[in-house]
Amino acid sequence: MKSLDFLYGFSGQFLKIGAYCHNGFTRVIIQIMIHHQGPILQFHLHIPKEIFLDSFQEVDQWMLLLARNNLRVLDFRNSNRIYQIPSSVFSFLELRVLGLVNCIFKPPLEFKGFQNLEDIMFSKVNFGGGTVINLPQLKALTLLRCSNVNSFNIKAEMLRILREDSCPEDILLRLLHSQYLYAVKICLLESLNDLVRVGRFTFTIDGYFLKFMAAGKFSEWLSHAKWLTRLNFQSVSLGDLYQIQGALCMLRNSPNVKLLRVTYMPMGPEADLELTSSYLESQYQTLFMLQSVEMIYLEGTRPEMLFIKLLLDYSPHLKKIIIRPRATADAEKRLNIVKDVMQFPRASTKAKMVFLDPEP
């Protein structure tokens, strides 16, 4: 066994048996590590809030032991007091995946970077100042609710996937210019005047953001959306008028989008299908440049069908539309989706319909 897993299942067992004491928890972990046969390539650890730690001395010792193991994966989720990552972690030169929650990440001044690190997930991490950190193999970066991000000065030219809610705009724009970047999800948008100027990646926004779009909260940067070529609407409810308005607003201001992916969420009891259907029926759009559309988790509601009809009506360059219903849609409903879509008029005579099996 090359992996040690002390995540929620492990800590949960201590909670069940009432052994959530500091000494018992740390003693078991150190005994397992000492008696472990062979190298430890993956280390997953959750420190629960119920354990009172005077210091993180024991955790520092565990990290020191791991430094001798050519560790590839470090997944440290801290629900306790904030923990400062010790200098030993910065000697994990074979590290491929690094996940930290509720930590202080302050590299020593002489630290130059992780040469093999490919995936970073930082949540509630506070960054300390230092030199530029070289991450030549980094492909995926997630920064959630982090602080002092200005001090996280990285060089990541191979970055492909970015998910963040805490980057200052200058750092964000620098990351967005990675030549390999193809997928971006911005979880919180505050200052985005030039964000969408980089058009080669897939820009992902969810239904919550679309409601802000409808309210005009981000109108100051919509003029730059002409640079976007790939757009992903995630967790969208077409039973919500504001989400529909936001989606159409985004499409109107993204005239060069060629690839659109829409993932639907189940209609809740608050959905107003009559109102949203009436709104969609009244819409007259400028032409879309869409070439490929993918609709995921369809339930076959009238607003969903009208949204597809609208795209077909105003996309003269469309080559393919992929439709995958939700697994909860029975066979009759799936058949009705196929019948409706096939009867819709199309602005493009080359548009190919692809119907896939339901997704759970």
Automatic annotation (TrEMBL):
InterPro entries xrefs: FBD, LRR_dom_sf
Domain of life of the source: Eukaryota
Transmembrane spans: none
Family annotation (SMART domains): FBD
Boundaries of every FBD domain copy: 287-356
Stated name of the protein: FBD domain-containing protein
Organism: Helianthus annuus (Common sunflower)
